[in-house]
Amino acid sequence: MIVWLNGTHGVGKTTTAALVQRLLPDSRVLDAEKVGETLMDVSPGLPATDNFQHWAPWRPLVVDTARRVLEFTGGTLVMPMTVLVEAYWREIRTGLAEHGIPVRHVVLHADRATLLARIAGEHAVPSPFRLQYVDAYAEAARTWLHAAAEVVDTTHLAPDEVARRVADVVGAGAAPGVSTPSTTA
Question: What's the pTM?
């Protein structure tokens, strides 16, 4: 199984992934960003883009990497990765389904003020990359993302509480404070 932790940059996916991995037996963290970093190292470089997810090879490589790791290790992969383009999410989800890999799609959410404060508090100068996706996340959340996932509102939760909520969602259905979508898209 894959537990895909989605949400905008700076919401706490990487921190949560490490904590969730400790709560789920026989689980490992696989960061799909590393697949993108590999593509960024191709020389000469691939066509210019502001996000490696726009490169067509990234999505099937994520699927194949996850599939192969699961074939090798079994268990559960916890995958922290922002995917805000619905077509990209559907491509990944469909690819994993074609290999018979169940996916629990969990979106970590924080209200705008909390998210901006978290991003500002990370470094002396807030990350322009993270800031540029705040509005894109809000639009994706409004139009498709929250309907395609189970949402954990992290606004007033400590990281260990977020991880417990995610583990509860994965292990026993929706936990209190978690909205469950009417679709499994």
Answer: 0.89
